[in-house]
Automatic annotation (TrEMBL), chain B:
Keywords: Membrane, Transmembrane, Transmembrane helix. This is HTTM domain-containing protein. It comes from the Bacteria. It comes from Pedobacter psychrophilus. The chain crosses the membrane at residues 12-28, 40-58, 67-85, 105-129, 141-159, 202-222, 229-260. The keyword Transmembrane applies.
């Protein structure tokens, strides 16, 4: 059975679902070709479809606890994903005046049509550092079963050397915190 | 292969058994809600239901309560188990659907949006319908959604220009896997990634192959005859993604359930009457 026949059957026997299908197809096509972004629930797979800007590097981090580097890939996959995505995002926000990338995009496109509370609660952070440090310390203590006395995060740019292995291009100290024992 | 067909209760058993296995895997992998605290950072993107989670305070409320996190986890396990046992019931699938959508929104909220993991959300949905016709219609819709998702991904690689860039595969590795390579210098995946960074033209051929493979899912809109081929293509595609781009698909593979050969007599019956 093909899609056309399917839609015909649905149209004849379950009209509401037929209209849902049309809405879903339209939403997905608009997400894919007009807005170029998934707008839940109109999921699109556009990752790796765009050409990367030339000379762009991967940004990552080095995490130092109690003066020793921690390899977050040694954690369980789920725990490692959480720590890596949160630290990467913390670095991004810190470098972007604590604003999400959509803050300025939405401000310029829809401006005051969106209530200010949406910008402030969703796309802008106040006093992020203290809450983040406290969460990170407790998360890492839980993971490593160690009491953490110092915490450093460096933002690093990675590139590829002539052996086609990753190499660190530069590093910037993003966070340096000592805790009382 | 095409002669094998499954009825609704067979499918229900398979789908919810897979969910149960996935939940155990998630537990072992540290991905369940009660295994996490509440980081102050959020990942809003253009995900409007998720905005409501944040604005209403629901995300903070649930993450601040160990009891609620445990209840959601228990309801996932028990609803999937009971959905297997009670083959006629639509109540437990409803509980499961509610819990898995809640779980997934909450989990995305602490680990960044992972579009490659959405498969977990859908195969449970057809089972909330008591009426066999509605179940069959929704199950088939899930199948078309699945095929459309991959076909569109192939088209977007043309529209967005990736397919015209000979460095696309090596750039993809450079932009998303160098940290993995740095911290896992001896792994087989790192060796493969290095190989395709050096042999970028071979990498490009793989990228082209992946785009063609994705566009091959258009077949799913024309006939069900080749679903077993799509099944194999899906596994090849995602296994390659896992090896070359470190993109796991354990949370997503369950979407393959839509390619299982459902007996759709009801649809055929209605077709004759058109």
């Amino acid at each position: 059975m093909n899609f056309k026949t399917y839609l015909k059957q649905v149209y004849i026997n379950w009209k509401n679902f037929y209209y849902f299908c049309l809405l879903f197809i339209s939403g997905t096509l608009i997400s894919a070709f007009v807005i170029c972004q998934t707008i839940t629930p109109f999921y699109i797979y556009s990752m790796y479809s765009y050409v990367f800007p030339q000379e762009s590097n991967m940004t990552s981090f080095r995490l130092i606890i109690n003066e020793k580097e921690l390899n977050t890939f040694s954690f369980l996959k789920g725990e490692g994903d959480v720590i890596r995505s949160n630290i990467n995002r913390f670095i991004y926000l810190k470098n972007n005046n604590y604003k999400d990338k959509y803050y300025d995009k939405l401000k310029s496109k829809v401006g005051n049509k969106l209530p200010e509370i949406i910008y402030e609660k969703i796309f802008h952070y106040n006093n992020l550092d203290s809450g983040f440090i406290s969460w990170l310390k407790s998360f890492l203590e839980n993971q490593t079963s160690m009491k953490i006395t110092s915490l450093k995060i460096y933002s690093i740019n990675l590139t590829v050397n002539n052996q086609f292995k990753p190499t660190q291009k530069n590093k910037v100290l993003i966070l340096n915190k000592k805790f009382n024992e | 292969m095409n002669n094998i067909t499954l009825n609704r209760s067979d499918l229900k058993t398979i789908v919810f058994s897979l969910y149960l296995i996935l939940l155990v895997y998630k537990f072992l992998n540290g991905e369940l809600l009660f295994q996490h605290t509440n980081p102050p950072i959020i990942y809003p993107i253009l995900n409007f239901p998720y905005w409501l989670f944040i604005l209403s305070g629901l995300k903070d409320f649930i993450f601040s309560s160990n009891l609620l996190k445990t209840i959601i986890t228990l309801s996932l396990f028990s609803a999937s188990f009971l959905s297997i046992i009670k083959t006629k019931s639509t109540f437990y699938p409803k509980i499961f659907c509610f819990s898995i959508w809640l779980y997934q929104f909450l989990y995305f909220s602490i680990v960044a949006y992972q579009p490659f993991a959405i498969g977990i959300l859908f195969p449970c949905l057809p089972f909330i319908f008591k009426d066999d016709f509605k179940f069959t219609v929704v199950f088939n819709f899930g199948r078309y959604f699945f095929c459309g998702l991959y076909f569109l991904a192939g088209v977007l690689k043309i529209v967005n220009g990736g397919i015209f860039n000979i460095y696309q595969m090596s750039d993809s590795i450079k932009m998303s896997c160098l940290d993995y390579m740095l911290y896992n210098p001896t792994s087989l995946k790192t060796d493969l990634m290095s190989f395709f960074l050096y042999h970028y033209k071979l990498g490009y051929l793989l990228y082209l192959g992946a785009a063609l493979l994705e566009m091959g899912f258009i077949l799913g809109f024309l006939t069900k005859k080749f679903d077993y081929i799509l099944f194999i293509l899906f596994l090849i595609f995602h296994f390659s993604n896992y090896m070359l781009l470190d993109l796991p698909f354990t949370n997503h593979f369950i979407i393959l359930a839509f390619l299982l050969p459902l007996r759709d007599d009801l649809l055929k019956y209605y077709t004759k009457n058109i």
